[in-house]
Amino acid sequence: AVVRRYRRSLELLVKDLPFHSALEIGSGEGYILTYILNVRPEVYLIGSDLSSDIIKKASSRETRVLWCVAQAENLPFADKSFDLVIACELLEHVAEPTLVLLEMRRVSKKFCLISVPCEPLWRILNILRGKYLSTLGNTPGHIHHWSPKKAVELVASFFCIMSVKISLPWIFILATYK
Question: E-strand spans in the chain?
């Protein structure tokens, strides 16, 4: 039910958004791009991740997307290459989220979509599930923790916020280029 709600929130955010091309940074196995294709099958999508092994899995799972290995802080694309740049469940994993947001702003023509886990709820829910107890519910790899206020403040320093949607336990921020 939680993942279904996440997917629905994402689909509603992009369904009527005027874009024809999108790049997802930190795509993992590509589920976000599949969700987008479910409501916008006509858009041109590129997925990227640091791991070539993950990109291989993603490309075999989702063949309608072009895939590449790329570092979020140093994307191999020209300025203003994509109508929409996406970073879902990424900013909590990177050492310097501001560098990722700068790159997103650089390669975006118009829109950015960001989602992060809503803290401290994320960790509380992990503890209630009996997960990651030794780290007080912190998911492995999460080095940043975002409250809605903190996430919006960070994104607003690079973009104009269009909408913020809390889809517990996640925060979605849709923004446009400043």
Answer: 21-24, 44-49, 66-69, 82-88, 108-117, 159-167, 170-177
Cβ(113)–Cβ(172) below 8 Å: yes
Which of 106, 108, 112 is closest to 90 using CA atoms?
112
Alpha carbons 31 and 112: distance in angstroms, whole number: 18
**Of residues 93, 89, 27, the one with CA closest to residue 61:** 27
Per-residue pLDDT tens over the stretch 91-148: 999 999 999 999 999 999 999 999 999 999 899 988 999 999 999 999 999 999 999 9
| C-alpha 74, offset from chain centre | 16
* Amino acid code (one letter) for 164: V
